[in-house]
């Protein structure tokens, strides 16, 4: 019986060691993947929380140009078919914007009317738009830059940051979940020798819950 008990204990210890090894491996891998992202989101969490106290001075740039006559004719015919609709600009118009102002319309929908086309170009940390008059071909481009703090805040929220950043946020969130869960399981393995483990975990849950319930209205 003694030998059998010792064998079972050794087997359990070996299994525990394997689990701990795997948990530590997943924990450090997820923490490494999350390192820069967690730092960025923590900093931008502070800037978002104090957005009203951080002064922002938007810089506005305006430029004007005239479209070639053939392109104006093409856009006028296109507008007649899409009056009141939201539709991407023709490829030739997008190419002209790229050449004239280094703008990448990227198939974004523009607002069409008989006498005008308006293309909104929202961006992280600012805004931009292009308006083209279809009677005379006069084009106007305006760019608003609200500074790097506004840019970081928009990056935090995923506002006007594109598909690639949206995917990054989802993957980063998944890595954070792995990081938290593996950390919790590691705590469970070590809790027997660390009596303050579960009280500290409980405080970590209780404090934000209490603040949310008592002070958020």
Report on this model:
The protein is an alpha+beta fold. Helix content is 60%, strand content 17%. The chain has a six-stranded antiparallel sheet, with no helix packed on it. A hairpin with a 5-residue loop joins strand 4 and strand 5. Keywords: Membrane, Transmembrane, Transmembrane helix. InterPro entries: PepSY_TM-like_2. The chain crosses the membrane at residues 26-48, 167-190, 196-216.
What shape does the CA trace take? elongated
Q: How many E-type strands?
A: 6
Question: Low-confidence stretches at least 5 residues in length (pLDDT < 50)?
Answer: none
Helix content: 55-70%
Order the strands across the largest sheet as they lie in space. 1-6-5-4-3-2
Number of helices in the DSSP assignment: 6
The portion of residues forming beta strands comes to 15-25%
Main beta-sheet strand count, sense and barrel state: 6 strands, antiparallel
Structural class, from secondary structure content? Answer: alpha+beta
Radius of gyration (CA) equals: 28 Å
Order of helices and strands: HEHEHEEEEHHH
How far apart lie the N and C ends?
63 Å
What value does the average pLDDT take?
A: 90
